[in-house]
TrEMBL record:
CDD domains from the UniProt entry: TM_PBP1_LivH_like
GO cellular component terms given for this protein: plasma membrane
Superkingdom of origin: Bacteria
Single GO MF annotation: transmembrane transporter activity
Membrane topology, from the record: Multi-pass membrane protein
Protein's UniProt name: Branched-chain amino acid ABC transporter permease
Cellular compartment(s): Cell membrane
Assigned keywords, A-Z: Amino-acid transport, Cell membrane, Membrane, Transmembrane, Transmembrane helix, Transport
Cross-referenced InterPro entries: ABC_transp_permease, BCAA_transport_permease
Keyword Membrane: yes
Pfam family, one: BPD_transp_2
Transmembrane regions listed in the UniProt entry: 12-39, 51-68, 74-92, 101-122, 142-168, 189-218, 230-254, 266-285
């Protein structure tokens, strides 16, 4: 049996793959956070609750309307994104000119409200959500038996992350979004409806969180606590990548997922804190994050 640093090669490759799967969720969630902060300059503390809400909307669509996984993968993010847009229109836009602390406190309260509501309705235990039949089963990679659904998660999250980056950085819409955050008055003078752009931005970030929630439902089950269990890690990912850096959020999500997986091989006791240790080291060396811009 091939060994690397005293660890069987099969175990090492297996944990690398598991780290990549976890990194896929980190990348999607941190991407949504980075978009909202980078374009709106607001820390969305409700992001974990919106991730959970995406999973629950898919579960409710299946339970009450019989709508399966594939339509829910589109409908749930759309529904949660629209709800996010309504929240932005009614509440968040009143806070843009105030201290950022007000936005953080509002989204923190929103997260507690959403999570508390679903804990009251469903308790703390998870609700099962079946893997779609087209993605059931697994394949033997030689070093591990990989469920097909987890491979799908890695592929689709990468496609969505790259597509979102291209939308923000390479299209006219993305240029308008970025310009509106720098000088909204000037952009509005050219006939662009800036308030609608800001609403779209928040709705897009929320929809990405909900999309990750639908992907996570068959893996982790649907639980009111699923958002609070992951959101602190995702904030650490965003900080390491650089607050507001779109590509930084994507790359760092995958990198830290893999780092977490490798730590489980070489020093399992530290696997739960390795991301925070990396965050502390990065902030000491480069406070703006790996891909952030220095002030």
């Amino acid at each position: 049996m091939t060994m690397i640093f005293g660890v069987p090669l099969q175990a090492l490759l297996g944990q690398l793959l598991i780290g990549l799967i976890n990194g896929s969720f980190y990348a999607l969630l941190s991407l949504g956070l980075a978009i909202i902060f980078g374009l709106l300059r607001m820390i969305n503390f409700a992001h974990g609750a919106q991730y959970m809400l995406g999973a629950f909307v898919a579960y409710l669509l299946l339970t009450f309307l019989g709508i399966g996984y594939w339509p829910a993968l589109i409908l749930a993010p759309l529904i949660v994104g629209i709800l996010g847009a309504i929240v932005e229109r009614l509440f968040l836009r009143r806070l843009y000119d105030l201290d950022p602390l007000y936005g953080l406190l509002f989204t923190f309260g929103l997260a507690l409200t959403i999570e508390g509501t679903f804990r009251y309705l469903y308790g703390s235990s998870g609700q099962p959500y079946a893997t779609p039949s087209a993605l059931s089963g697994g394949t033997n990679l030689g070093f591990m038996f990989m469920p097909i659904y987890r491979g799908w998660v890695v592929v689709v999250s990468l496609v969505v992350c790259i597509g979102t980056w291209l939308l923000i950085e390479k299209t006219k819409l993305g240029a308008y979004l970025r310009a509106a955050t720098e000088n909204s008055t000037l952009v509005q003078a050219f006939g662009v409806n800036v308030p609608v752009l800001l609403t779209f931005t928040y709705g897009l970030g929320v929809a990405l969180a909900a999309f990750a929630g639908v992907l996570a439902a068959p893996v982790y089950q649907v639980s009111p606590l699923m958002g609070s269990n992951i959101i602190i890690v995702v904030f650490a990912v965003v900080v390491v990548g650089g607050m507001g850096s779109i590509m930084g959020a994507i790359l760092t999500g995958y990198m830290l997922g893999i780092a977490e997986g490798l730590t489980k091989v070489f020093y399992p006791e530290a696997s739960n804190i390795v991301i925070f240790v990396i965050m502390a080291i990065v902030l000491l060396i480069r406070p703006a994050g790996l891909f952030g811009r220095d002030a």
